[in-house]
Design goal:
Helices cover about 65% and strands about 0% of the residues. The longest helix is centred in the first third of the chain and has 14 residues.
Length: about 80
């Protein structure tokens, strides 16, 4: 497979690895709204809503805000 073929191939990682990667990225960039949003959206999709709400509260405690986080909050029940 050449490097030009890589972009057309599906890329899969385990749930555990995804969570590890996001956690590591958030350690380096704790106020990154996109990273928080990705984590919260992921948890929501897995029906882990209480954990998603807790992560949303944590993001807010850090002063993180974005339109995406506000949208996710509405979907999680008005957090």
């Amino acid at each position: 497979m050449s490097s030009s073929d890589f972009g057309s191939q599906p890329f899969y990682i385990s749930r555990r690895r995804f969570e590890e990667l996001v956690a590591e990225a958030l350690q380096q960039r704790p106020r990154d709204a996109q990273l928080h949003g990705a984590r919260i959206h992921y948890l929501q999709r897995l029906a882990r809503k209480s954990e998603a709400r807790a992560r949303l509260r944590k993001a807010r405690e850090l002063g993180v805000d974005s339109a995406e986080l506000r949208r996710l909050a509405r979907r999680l029940g008005g957090e």
